[in-house]
Every structure is written in structure tokens, then in C-alpha cells.
């Protein structure tokens, strides 16, 4: 106790807030003085440290995200900046891919899909989760193209997204009591220009599929390139099926046992072009020009590479010239050429190819035929406006049965599949602008029906599997883990044997050991005056009708009735 009193007395003397303001008396006890604080506790340091962390964080964030590419607090979003492109996936309007001027239609269809995602989720919840519910990923090349402000350079991607949005809308219109009708959520994913960053996108999608059992397949891929083949192998490794609306490089199905394509392979395209040249044009000489797009090569571009090789084999010595065409190369040697002048390149160079032919003036080549990539050019009014008006173009189409005239004709014949599709694309609350309406005859788009068919094949397979499960217990809720992606792929194959799937762009049939469709309809479309964008192309030649008994049939198509 005595020691406590003594310590207390010393504390009174040492208190720093003592009322004795003057200096201590000489010889007395010196007042307590606190030492200087260490440098690391100074008041300015925490603020400076925060600034350093914010700056470093900004540099890190800037390397991964940018305006128009950032993580979202809601929905399924995973993105990062890769070489200036926003790569990853999204199912919500908080992340829409591509901010370039002139690409509003691409952004608009993404927003439409994301709004329908919310509607599908709401209907599923209100159905007490009895309806089958699945997620499909659209994987395409949504960024990276250099484009003018008035030029739409993502026509293929926009049309494929429109096709998937149309399939999604068809399912939303099913009656509330239709417990067997599936509901579809769509995740939009970007693999970058020419699918160069598809590997990173697939890695992110693999994580999504592990966390979300409703993810059952991928639609899209857009271009047959080496990077696409790499992505197919990786998707096969993680167990995700792929249904490609337009890929057609020969033997690309060898890269995944879970791969199926909707369009005819290049071998069928080459067979048709040769039959047209021999039986209709009656020419015995051909010149071929090819391109692969910027920073690519014939080895990397599987579509162009297998197409050129197929032409060499099919035409043999009748091909007297095979050349790469580059911007700036003149084509005056082709002026007045009486044989087949075939463009076997990418759409992105076809505009320059046509402008080069302007030099021919009143003596153009007689028979210009182009591959199916050119349909992207034909869907771009800003580019067509500068084309010469005296050079008709005949080009390959994978969806001639889904043009507006063909759909109207099918509807008049009570073809329920095509009539239902026509009703959907004509509706004012789906595609912008609506298609095939009498007062505004906007073409439906080459790839809309192909992507619609791809999505619906996966949906119907899922519904078939769900029906078997529901047979045992009609009142059971839908359990996403009840099916898996591999079983859905197997069911697609089961359903597409025999008569096949009744696709809008033609029947689709497969064999168990191939991802290429059998005898898929493929056509040649002719445009007399390229700058006249309001005039529908006319189908002039067709091969295939989905019937194995007529697999070799190719012939002219009679002109439509007046």
C-alpha cells in the first residue's frame, strides 16, 4: 500500500496536463516530456500509404478492366482486358460487349437477351421450378474489328445472337401450364478478334460450368481458325458440347467428340460450285483468289485453307490460277475473263476486291462467284454502296430456305416449323428492326435461322431427357443436376438420326461418328446489282435436301412465281 501511494504521488508530479505552466524550479524535479513519435507513426503516412495503394490498385484494375469492361455486382459476369479487348462472359446488362460506334444493333440484341434472362428466371420461379431450365453460352468474336462509325462489322455475331434470342422468346411464349417446356438463359461470351483469346474465355466458362449445373452447351464460334480448333479441344476436355451454326472447315469436328455443326462442310460447298460451273455456266477454266484476314495465314485459317484445297482437288487442271489477293493488288488481268472467277476468302477483304474490279469498267469478268463468308458483306449496306453496279455476284448461302420469300412460301404450305419462326421474327417486340414485314421488308439475315436451329436442337434434347425423368414423378421440381452436358449431346445425336431435326434452314441429320451434317441444303444466291440493298437475292442453284436417297442431287432452282 505504501508503494502505491508513493507511485501515485509521482504520477501527480509527472502528469503532462499539470496546471503549473512555468518552468520547474532550479534543482527541482524536471517535468515529464514525451519523446518524438517514430517516423512510421506520423499523421501524413497513412494518407500517403492510401494514395500509393489506390494508385497501384488503379494500375492493376486498368490492366484488367476498362470502361465497358468491368465486373458486376449482379448476375454472372467474369471479364478481363486482354490486349485491349474485353474477354469473358456476361448474362446481365451490367456488362454488354462492344462500345464501338456503329455497333448499337449488336448491343441492343445483347440487352434483349439479358432482359429475357430475367423473364425466364421469373417464370421458372413462378412455376415452382417444375419446368426444365437450362443455360446456353454464346461464344463469338464480339470485339477487335476495325470499323467505320457507319459500318456494322459484327453482322455474323449480331445475327447469331438474334437467332438465339428468337429461340429464347419462343420458349417464353409457352403456356404457363406447359411444365415440359424448357426455359432458356443465355450467357454471352467474347473470345476476341478471330477467336484469338478464346482459350482464356473457355477457361472462364469452365469455371462457370463447374459452379452452375444448368450450363449445358455452347453455341457460336463464328470462324474456323486454328484458335477455334484449340478452343474446341478445351471445351471437349471440360465436357461442354458445341453446336456451331456456321463453321464449315472440313474435318474441324476432329477436334471435339462433343462438336456438331449446323452448316454443310466445305466439301459440299466445293461440290456445288463445281456442279454450277460445269452444268450452268458451262465453263472449263477457273481462277481462284483467297484471303485470310488481317494478321492471319492459310495455315491458321482452317476455313479458307480447306476450301482452297478442296477446289484444287475438285477442279484439278481446270484451275489455271490460284493467288492470294491483298489490298492494293490490281485485278485488271481478270477484266473480260469468260471462265469462273471464284473468291475463296474472308468477307473483310471482299469490299476491296470489288473496288479493284471497278477498273474493268464496261468489261468486267463474266462469272464472279464467292464463298459463304461473303454473306457478311452482303448484309452490310454501307459497304455495298461503293460496289460497281455492273458486276453481278453469285455467292454461297447456308440458309436459303430461311429467306423471307422462302419462309412466306413455307407458311402458306402449313410448314409449322418455318411458319412459327416467321411469326417470331416479324414480331415488333423481339428483333430491331422486325424482319420480313410487308411494310418494311428487312431480310431475316443469313445466320439468324442457323443459330436458332442450333439452340433449339439443344433445347429439344434437354426437354426429351426431362420428360423421361418427369414420367416417374409428374409433380417433381426440376433438378438441374438431373442431366449433364454429355447426356444432352448424346440425346441430340439420338434425335437427329433417321429423318433428323426439322430445322428452319433445312433438316439436320448426323451419323454417330461425325459432327458434320448429312446432305444439308446449301445454295447459290445471285445479286444482279450489288448496291441495291433493298432487293432480295435470288436462289439460283441448290444441293442437298436432307434426304439420304438424293444426296448427290444438285440443280438449278426455278425462279419464284410472280
In short:
This protein is of the alpha/beta class and 562 residues long.
Structure description:
- With 562 residues, the chain is an alpha/beta fold.
- Helices cover 36% and strands 14% of the residues.
- It is built from 15 helices and 15 strands.
- Strands 9-8-10-11-12-13-14-15 form an eight-stranded mixed sheet, with helices on one face.
- The termini are far apart.
Count the strands? 15
Number of helices: 15
> What is the end-to-end distance?
119 Å
Query: In terms of structural class, how would the helical and strand content be classed?
Result: alpha/beta
Low-confidence runs (pLDDT<50, min 5 residues)? 1-34, 48-63
Give the amount of beta strand, in percent.
5-15%
Shape assignment:
globular
Average pLDDT number: 88
Rg (C-alpha, Å): 32 Å
Q: Could you give the order of the helices and strands?
A: HHEEHEHEHEHEEHEHEEHEHHEHHHHEEE
Biggest sheet strand order reads 9-8-10-11-12-13-14-15
Helix content range of the residues, please? 25-40%
Instruction: Give a quick account of the main beta sheet: strands, pairing sense, barrel closure.
Output: 8 strands, mixed
What topology emerges from the helices and strands here?
Layout: H1 2-14, H2 44-64, E1 77-82, E2 85-90, H3 104-126, E3 133-140, H4 155-172, E4 183-190, H5 198-211, E5 215-220, H6 226-238, E6 242-244, E7 259-261, H7 266-281, E8 286-290, H8 302-315, E9 319-324, E10 340-343, H9 350-357, E11 367-370, H10 375-378, H11 381-384, E12 393-397, H12 404-412, H13 416-426, H14 448-472, H15 485-495, E13 522-527, E14 538-543, E15 554-556
Parallel strand pairs: 3-4, 3-5, 5-6, 6-7, 8-9, 8-10, 10-11, 11-12
Antiparallel strand pairs: 1-2, 2-4, 12-13, 13-14, 14-15
Amino acid at each position: 500500500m505504501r508503494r502505491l501511494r508513493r507511485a501515485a504521488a509521482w504520477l501527480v508530479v509527472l502528469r503532462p496536463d499539470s496546471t503549473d505552466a512555468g518552468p520547474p524550479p532550479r534543482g527541482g524535479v524536471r517535468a515529464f516530456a514525451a519523446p518524438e513519435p517514430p517516423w512510421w507513426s506520423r499523421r501524413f503516412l497513412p494518407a500517403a500509404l492510401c494514395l500509393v495503394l489506390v494508385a497501384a490498385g488503379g494500375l492493376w484494375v486498368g490492366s484488367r478492366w476498362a470502361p465497358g469492361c468491368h465486373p458486376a455486382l449482379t448476375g454472372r459476369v467474369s471479364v478481363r482486358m486482354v490486349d485491349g479487348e474485353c474477354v469473358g462472359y456476361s448474362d446481365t446488362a451490367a456488362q454488354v460487349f462492344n462500345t464501338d460506334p456503329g455497333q448499337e444493333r449488336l448491343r441492343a440484341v445483347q440487352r434483349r437477351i439479358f432482359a429475357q434472362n430475367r423473364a425466364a428466371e421469373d417464370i421458372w420461379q413462378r412455376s415452382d421450378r417444375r419446368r426444365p431450365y437450362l443455360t446456353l453460352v454464346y461464344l463469338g468474336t464480339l470485339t477487335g474489328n476495325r470499323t467505320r462509325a457507319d459500318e456494322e462489322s459484327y453482322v455474323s455475331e449480331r445475327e447469331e445472337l438474334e437467332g438465339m434470342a428468337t429461340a429464347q422468346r419462343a420458349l417464353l411464349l409457352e403456356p404457363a401450364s406447359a411444365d415440359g417446356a424448357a426455359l432458356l438463359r443465355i450467357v454471352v461470351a467474347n473470345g476476341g478478334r478471330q477467336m484469338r483469346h478464346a482459350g482464356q474465355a473457355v477457361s472462364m466458362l469452365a469455371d462457370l460450368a463447374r459452379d452452375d449445373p444448368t450450363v449445358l452447351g455452347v453455341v457460336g464460334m463464328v470462324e474456323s481458325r486454328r484458335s477455334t480448333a484449340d478452343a474446341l479441344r478445351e471445351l471437349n476436355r471440360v465436357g461442354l458440347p458445341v453446336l456451331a451454326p456456321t463453321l464449315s472447315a472440313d474435318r474441324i469436328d476432329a477436334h471435339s467428340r462433343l462438336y456438331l455443326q449446323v452448316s454443310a462442310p466445305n466439301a459440299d460447298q466445293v461440290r456445288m460450285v463445281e456442279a454450277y460451273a460445269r452444268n450452268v455456266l458451262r465453263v472449263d477454266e477457273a481462277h481462284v483468289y483467297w484471303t485470310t484476314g488481317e494478321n492471319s495465314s492459310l495455315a491458321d485459317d482452317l476455313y479458307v485453307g480447306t476450301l482452297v484445297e478442296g477446289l484444287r482437288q475438285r477442279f484439278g487442271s481446270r484451275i489455271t490460277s490460284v493467288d492470294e489477293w491483298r489490298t492494293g493488288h490490281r485485278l485488271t488481268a481478270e477484266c473480260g475473263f469468260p471462265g469462273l472467277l471464284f473468291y475463296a476468302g474472308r468477307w473483310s477483304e471482299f469490299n476491296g476486291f470489288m473496288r479493284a474490279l471497278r477498273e474493268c469498267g464496261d468489261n468486267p469478268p463474266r462469272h464472279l462467284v464467292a464463298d459463304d463468308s461473303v454473306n457478311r458483306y452482303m448484309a452490310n449496306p454501307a459497304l455495298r454502296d461503293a460496289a460497281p453496279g455492273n458486276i453481278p455476284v453469285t455467292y454461297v448461302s447456308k440458309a436459303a430456305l430461311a429467306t423471307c420469300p422462302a419462309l412466306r412460301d413455307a407458311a402458306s404450305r402449313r410448314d409449322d416449323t418455318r411458319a412459327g419462326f416467321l411469326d417470331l421474327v416479324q414480331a415488333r417486340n423481339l428483333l430491331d428492326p422486325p424482319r420480313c414485314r410487308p411494310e418494311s421488308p428487312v431480310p431475316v439475315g443469313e445466320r439468324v435461322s442457323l443459330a436458332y436451329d442450333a439452340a433449339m436442337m439443344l433445347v429439344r434434347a434437354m426437354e426429351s431427357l426431362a420428360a423421361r425423368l418427369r414420367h416417374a414423378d409428374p409433380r417433381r421440381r426440376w433438378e438441374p443436376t438431373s442431366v449433364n452436358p454429355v447426356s444432352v449431346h448424346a440425346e441430340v445425336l439420338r434425335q437427329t438420326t433417321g429423318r433428323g431435326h426439322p430445322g428452319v434452314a433445312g433438316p439436320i441429320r448426323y451419323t454417330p461418328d461425325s459432327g458434320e451434317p448429312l446432305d444439308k441444303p446449301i445454295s447459290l444466291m445471285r445479286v444482279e446489282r450489288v448496291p441495291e440493298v433493298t432487293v432480295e437475292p435470288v436462289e439460283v442453284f441448290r444441293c442437298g435436301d436432307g434426304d439420304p436417297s438424293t444426296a448427290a442431287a444438285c440443280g438449278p432452282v426455278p425462279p419464284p412465281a410472280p
